[in-house]
């Protein structure tokens, strides 16, 4: 394989779940001096092009008009079915976009001869990483036990956003109308528009009766209907927005780098659940994730809140590790935080779920 983004030729196949999918070292999107523990965010200087930006649902939907999504489905260890837009389909969309206003990332994505991972360009969001499935299984248990009652959820470094997609799908399936704000964040805007929102749409569409889905996705000129494709017709998008309103779901999106600017953007949202899967993979990202969780939950007005950090115990070759993350968080945490760890024992490469509870 010559391409450096870590995709196999099968893109989203199960192959990516083996050890060959270790994240390659990347250069952070920031410059920094040597900070003291707890001062990492303060010391970051984020490059202008990577400053975080909020995006409305409509602005991202506008980039997906009449796109036909191709997806596959995957059954997790816990027997939960989730859907993933195929990567070849993402590449196809990029190539079809006539205005050619694609970012550098998009150019790299379709250039199979590019050998180098591009610093400050890509942080792994196009793939679904192994711990995202562990997170889905845990969320499934919490939902079944009636323990997932959060009203403002942030998926921090969401990529394909399978945990958020699963939460949205379950909420609609159970006809739950409690207000829910779902904020999806990724380093790359292109990840948000090309896989995050498409995956959300696919999971939502899976909740529709087949007849309704058929009538919403076919037009007089195009009567094709297939189990692994979804046409984003104007009628389908309207129904999507209608259902979001009906189920009291507000979706928002943030692209760009983590840091204090990111935490300022999110501060009004009163986040009471942070989900972060496979984000503590490097010595640079680990303190940022730890400090951001502390800051976001402390600044939220929620009385009690939780962060779920899903990670491999060791990231070979890149330097991140669960132990280092836990040590770091335990050193910076205040008395309101308690931390517990659950190991996932179904593979040679150990993985864990960290629960960081905050109670004011
Ligand atoms: C390895 S991917 C994991 C994606 C997804 N959570 C999963 O488990 O499949 C790491 C994620 O963290 C995000 N990320 C990494 N460093 C970041 C940074 N400095 N600022 C913002 N996002 C970052 C990437 O955009 C990407 O979505």
From TrEMBL:
Gene3D superfamilies: Vaccinia Virus protein VP39. Its EC number is 2.1.1.85. It comes from the Eukaryota. The keyword Transferase applies. This is protein-histidine N-methyltransferase. It comes from Candida maltosa (strain Xu316) (Yeast). Residues 24-35 have a biased composition (Low complexity). It is found in: Cytoplasm; Nucleus. One of its GO terms (molecular function) is protein-L-histidine N-tele-methyltransferase activity. Belongs to the methyltransferase superfamily. METTL18 family. One of its GO terms (biological process) is methylation. InterPro entries: Methyltransf_16 (IPR019410), SAM-dependent_MTases_sf (IPR029063). It is an enzyme of class 2 (transferase). Residues 1-37 are annotated as: Disordered. Keywords: Cytoplasm, Methyltransferase, Nucleus, S-adenosyl-L-methionine, Transferase. GO terms for cellular component: cytoplasm; nucleus.
